[in-house]
Amino acid sequence: MKLLKDILYKVAILEVHGTTNVEVSDISFDSRSVIEGGVYVAQKGLKVDGHDFIEGAIAKGAVAIICEDLPQEMSTAITFVKVKSTHEALAFMAANFYDNPSEDIQLVGVTGTNGKTTTVTLLYNLFKKLGYKVGLLSTVVNYIDEKEVKATHTTPDSLSVNKLLSQMVAAGCEYCFMEVSSHAVVQNRVLGLHFKGGVFTNISHDHLDYHKTFDEYIAAKRGFFTQLGKDSFALSNKDDKRAEVMLQESKAKKNYYAVKAAADFKCKIMESNFTGLLLKIDDQEVWCPIIGKFNAYNLTAVYATAILLGQNKIEVLTALSSLRPVEGRFEYIRVNDISGIVDYAHTPDALENVLKTIKEIRTGNEQVITVVGCGGDRDTTKRPLMAGIAAELSDRVILTSDNPRTEDPQQIIEEMKVGLDPVNKKKANAITDRKEAIRMACALAKSGDIILVAGKGHENYQEINGVRNHFDDMEILQETLNELNA
Ligand SMILES: CC(=O)N[C@H]1[C@@H](OP(=O)(O)OP(=O)(O)OC[C@H]2O[C@@H](n3ccc(=O)[nH]c3=O)[C@H](O)[C@@H]2O)O[C@H](CO)[C@@H](O)[C@@H]1O[C@H](C)C(=O)N[C@@H](C)C(=O)N[C@H](CCC(=O)O)C(=O)O
Ligand SMILES: Nc1ncnc2c1ncn2[C@@H]1O[C@H](COP(=O)(O)OP(=O)(O)OP(=O)(O)O)[C@@H](O)[C@H]1O
Ligand SMILES: N[C@H](CCC[C@H](N)C(=O)O)C(=O)O
Ligand SMILES: [Mg+2]
């Protein structure tokens, strides 16, 4: 048990009503999960205002309420603390409650529009191969050493992050690699954490539903590097236009990696094909069974991070050559001379990279057939862009549903179609049912052709109106190609 006054350390307090000398059993920012003796932190959200649930939290046994607006009537039996920001307060309280676990583990955060999951997962696997106990926080899954914990967000809320980090410390993990999303920076999910390093992959069009402008999105990502201290390193992709802007306000030691520009960590792509990449990193050739030129960036970022964390160059390069691809990222199968690729490309930039990669590494003039959709309740401006890119860089494109969530899938497809010029329109079909769309792509494919199913990668569900039904792109692709081959 901890005292409220101790977990409020570093919180910008405006007013206190009652005593902070009270023991607290738990912290919660959801009134529904408050337990007897717990503290409820009321947050103003995008959908509802947590202040409206203070009564409910008290009824469940809260002994203290942390809020931005004090209620009209305050029971004298419990403590009310008015703070400047409850999102900020939660982050500091969580760190204090779990004994600042980020101080006891080498924590590295990776941010950027694309490549975060790939980079942190490769780092997790690499450090395990180097003999360490490691933690992972990613879009796909969280790991406390070998123990799997379901991931609900790319970056969990500050309470969950600190809890997971404390479990990693208790399990003896020496390193943790985590994704830092732009939402997480804005919502203070990583505030107060001690990062040993921060990595920037790239920035392009995404999440403009949330951040409104591209400048605001850049500022959100930059905020992560501004948070890093003098004892940390920052590693940025020199080939990205925003490489330096990202680190502008950072006190961390700055390092750059690149494939094109001159940089501290330099990679040259010697060969790229459907079995992997032959790279020259720091003048050493290394073969990696991971497909796609964009992965040369991820692999170089992984290498540089390992070196900046003090690892041995040759040991790192050796381990790098035995890393497996990440689930749902350029996953490749071949059935009866037809190639199938499942990739999580759900942004215009990622889709363009994947399609360009496919065109670069195909051996002849095989047709590329792309199946793609866009998620509902997400950035609508990427819809026409993604359809345009898919059609421009494919021979045939089938527009379909992704996760429609609460939107009408047909309407999403209509918004995608706006991005097709008259030539591209001729290459496009629309089939709302994603399974049927994949089946049609398979039926159209002739020997040698390449089918790309983009947007859902590792996801094993399709979300329609709040219900997640089992859905697996690779399962359907494999099944259909096998059927046609039988
Ligand atoms: C847009 C967004 O980021 N929303 C996040 C935000 O929700 P919100 O502000 O809308 O919260 P709200 O529903 O209005 O509720 C306000 C407050 O009232 C509380 N409440 C609510 C109801 C109740 O009965 N009692 C109660 O106490 C809630 O717990 C909350 O504290 O705060 C919640 C709690 O931390 C998050 O779960 C939620 O993520 C939603 C589910 C989400 O979909 N987020 C996505 C967009 C996201 O975060 N994505 C990023 C990046 C993805 C990537 O590119 O990889 C990620 O990191 O995953
Ligand atoms: N370094 C990169 N540059 C450009 N595109 C990339 C890069 N790495 C991966 N991609 C593409 O982006 C897709 C998503 O990759 P990944 O899951 O690693 O990114 P992410 O940043 O974690 O995405 P999310 O924000 O959804 O969590 C991949 O399937 C691939 O198409
Ligand atoms: N982390 C991203 C993933 C998008 C994946 C795509 N399949 C979709 O559902 O839109 C998001 O939540 O915006
Ligand atoms: Mg991710």
From TrEMBL:
Catalytic activities: UDP-N-acetyl-alpha-D-muramoyl-L-alanyl-D-glutamate + meso-2,6-diaminopimelate + ATP = UDP-N-acetyl-alpha-D-muramoyl-L-alanyl-gamma-D-glutamyl-meso-2,6-diaminopimelate + ADP + phosphate + H(+)
Functional pathway: Cell wall biogenesis; peptidoglycan biosynthesis
Residue positions binding UDP-N-acetyl-alpha-D-muramoyl-L-alanyl-D-glutamate: S31, T154, T155, S181, Q187, R189
Any matching Pfam family: Mur_ligase_M
Domain Mur ligase central: residue ranges: 110-305
Gene3D superfamilies listed in its UniProt record: Mur ligase, C-terminal domain, Mur-like, catalytic domain, MurE/MurF, N-terminal domain
One annotated GO molecular function: ATP binding
Placement of sequence motif Meso-diaminopimelate recognition motif: 402-405
An individual GO BP term: cell division
InterPro entries: Mur-like_cat_sf (IPR036565), Mur_ligase_C (IPR004101), Mur_ligase_C_dom_sf (IPR036615), Mur_ligase_cen (IPR013221), Mur_ligase_N (IPR000713), MurE/MurF_N (IPR035911), UDP-N-AcMur-Glu-dNH2Pim_ligase (IPR005761)
Cofactor: Mg(2+)
Every Mur ligase C-terminal domain range: 328-457
Subcellular compartments: Cytoplasm
Positions of the Mur ligase N-terminal catalytic domain: 24-98
Alphabetically ordered keywords of this record: ATP-binding, Cell cycle, Cell division, Cell shape, Cell wall biogenesis/degradation, Cytoplasm, Ligase, Magnesium, Nucleotide-binding, Peptidoglycan synthesis
Keyword Cytoplasm assigned: yes
Enzyme Commission number(s) from the entry: 6.3.2.13
Enzyme class name: ligase
SUPFAM superfamilies per UniProt: MurD-like peptide ligases, catalytic domain, MurD-like peptide ligases, peptide-binding domain, MurE/MurF N-terminal domain
UniProt KW Transmembrane keyword: no
Chain's role: Catalyzes the addition of meso-diaminopimelic acid to the nucleotide precursor UDP-N-acetylmuramoyl-L-alanyl-D-glutamate (UMAG) in the biosynthesis of bacterial cell-wall peptidoglycan.
Similarity field: Belongs to the MurCDEF family. MurE subfamily.
Protein name as annotated: UDP-N-acetylmuramoyl-L-alanyl-D-glutamate--2,6-diaminopimelate ligase
Gene: murE
